[in-house]
Amino acid sequence: MKHFFFTLISALGLAGIAAADPIEGVWQTEVDEGSYALVTIAPCGGAYCGTISKTFNASGEYQSPNLGKQIVRNMVPQDGTEYRGQVWRPSNDKVYLGKIALSGNQMALRGCVAGGLICARQNWVKIR
Fold it and tell me: How many CB atoms lie within 10 A of CB 53?
């Protein structure tokens, strides 16, 4: 009986891991105004959100006042590789329409204004 429950629990655990969305994980941002961050993306309600988990500058890791803040907000899957929601840019404290396109361990993240006519882009790399 113990063997049955262990097998059942193991199978359920592996099924949960296999079902993780490709956007979930830790992503490294591009350098923006001399700093970059690691952002942890996880489910938040029916969407995905990304929280700044570590920050770095030319001297190495540092304690930014942005640690723990949500930079990717309410990203809703559009299909298997595209998401739409909001993006917060810490350097100017503005929130933009956000678009994400995934390709393997690469993310093209765009923050847009004017209904998506004017966008800035960053490319992030998934590190785990």
Answer: 14
Question: Which among 10, 36, 39 has a CA at the least distance from the CA of 24?
Answer: 39
Phi and psi torsions of 52, nearest 5°: -70, 115
CA distance 111 to 122: 9
pTM: 0.81
How many angstroms separate the Cα of 32 from the Cα of each of 12, 20, 57?
41, 29, 10
Q: Which two tokens stand for residue 80?
A: 């298997």
Mean pLDDT of the chain: 86
Express each pLDDT in 12-50 by its tens digit. 444 334 457 899 999 999 998 889 999 999 999 999 999
Cα separation, 85 vs 105, whole angstroms: 20
On the 0-12 / 13-18 / 19+ scale of CB atoms within 10 A, 39 is: buried
* Calpha distance 92→32 (Å, rounded): 11
The CA R_g of the chain, rounded to the nearest whole Å, is 17
